[in-house]
Amino acid sequence: KAGVTQTPRYLIKTRGQQVTLSCSPISGHRSVSWYQQTPGQGLQFLFEYFSETQRNKGNFPGRFSGRQFSNSRSEMNVSTLELGDSALYLCASSLNRLNTEAFFGQGTRLTVV
Amino acid sequence: DQQVKQNSPSLSVQEGRISILNCDYTNSMFDYFLWYKKYPAEGPTFLISISSIKDKNEDGRFTVFLNKSAKHLSLHIVPSQPGDSAVYFCAASATDYKLSFGAGTTVTVRA
After folding, report:
1. Per-residue pLDDT tens digits for B39-89
2. Minimum Cα–Cα distance from B90: chain A residue
3. Residue B102: its chain A contacts at CB < 8 A?
């Protein structure tokens, strides 16, 4: 079956702009989580969506937001981009809210210039 | 506040030998632990996990050990193969369902 699909794979934006990233989970998976990966920081939890509701949020400013649609697809939005937002953004899906085995997409590499 | 720590940023091991990756955590509420492997330009791939009610879990060449009293877990890879060269992340979760990751350990397997 198809894995987690993230689009676009690469993105270059200018400071101050906003960006929307998309994640299509594995078919049947209802939980989608987003992570930010920067060099030396590992993966930092952004938020989790389950049944179209944000269930959990990490320690990121309000410029980071997201949503989940009825088909479990999720989008993440970052407004007023800063240079420090340059990172690999990873989406993970799991069957339910138990993160016993979350499957990751390939990520979206965002570069802010 | 980094609740999951991988204190060794890199590890070099000869092919055929054992690789031991270590991970420490501070949150006593963590009840599930996972290891992920990541190649460049790819998302992390699940390797193996362990529940807090166990102290060992094996899957082929991979074994994870959990020492709850020390808040420490380790991943053993035996024997190490060239394809094991990657970044390995330790992760933990509690009842809030979010994964807390360590910063990763880059493993290089030498021929």
Report:
1. 988 899 999 999 999 999 999 999 999 999 999 999 999 999 999 999 999
2. A42
3. 42
